[in-house]
Amino acid sequence: MKVLYFGGQKSGKSNLAEVKALSLAKNKPFYIATYDNSYDDKEMHKRVDKHKKSREDNFSTLEEPKDLTKVIKEKETYLVDCISMWIFNNIEKEEQELLKQLEILEQIDCNIVFVLNEVTSGVIPFDKDSRRFVDLTGIIGQKLAKICDEVYEVKFGLESRLK
After folding, report:
1. What 3-state class would DSSP assign to 12?
2. Calpha distance 75→163 (Å, rounded)
3. DSSP 3-state of 80
4. How many CB atoms lie within 10 A of CB 69?
5. CB burial class (10 A; 0-12, 13-18, 19+) of residue 139?
6. How many whole angstroms from its chain centre is CA 108?
7. CA 71, 61, 30, 147: dihedral to nearest 10 degrees?
8. 30-33 and 111-117: which strand pairing?
9. Tens digit of pLDDT for each residue in 100-141?
């Protein structure tokens, strides 16, 4: 089963996605952390630490910022948190290359719960890089919604099932 949780920052999507992944898992699920920890961003380090604490020992953590196909295998359950950081880490790659990764993941017989920040409802950004990120988020979000069995929008900790 493939599931997508999307919503704004701090909407509660990660917490709900964790619960979903645990409910789907037959064995201890894997948490795929996509944040590239090479940036010296103290705020992001605090966020990462908070996520680690909330997971406790419920997940085995894998760090993969760029190529999800390297770590996702058949017959397991994965929580990918988050696709937004994965997009950011791959911002220089061609759109088709990113979509191809998702198509490969779609074919793997496993459970994957994806988390995506909703950033496409605002104004069109002025700078080229921000526009590319927002555009890719919309394109990737559409692809995920298409390949996922279930899609949930999250606001203020409340989930609404769209698919």
Report:
1. coil
2. 23
3. strand
4. 14
5. middle
6. 17
7. -60
8. unpaired
9. 999 999 999 999 999 999 998 888 888 999 999 999 999 999
